[in-house]
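Supplementary Methods. Inverse-folding protocol.

Structures were first reduced to a discrete structure-token string of length 94. This string, shown here, constituted the complete conditioning input.
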């Protein structure tokens, strides 16, 4: 697995928002089922995909506690991550 390359920017403890983080897009291996090439010879094709790892106390401080469901909006060269809004359960009429 690739090593994580990130450098946190020094920020005053009193500064709340905005907090800027600089991350590097890494590569990860997308596993696929092994394929048979011949009798007794199997191989697994390697497929690399981009990967970004988000973790740290700053996620909790920004309102993303452990177990929080997320909504991610994908635009060209932009990801917007927000807490997923819980949908109210429709009431059942008797």
């Amino acid at each position: 697995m690739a090593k994580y390359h990130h450098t946190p920017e020094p920020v005053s403890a009193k500064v709340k928002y905005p907090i800027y983080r600089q991350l590097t897009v890494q590569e990860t291996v997308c596993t696929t089922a092994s394929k048979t090439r011949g009798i007794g010879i199997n191989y697994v094709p390697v497929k690399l995909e981009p990967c970004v790892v988000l973790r740290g106390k700053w996620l909790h401080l920004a309102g993303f506690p452990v177990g929080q469901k997320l909504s991610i909006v994908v635009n060209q060269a932009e990801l917007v991550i927000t807490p997923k809004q819980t949908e109210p359960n429709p009431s059942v009429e008797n």
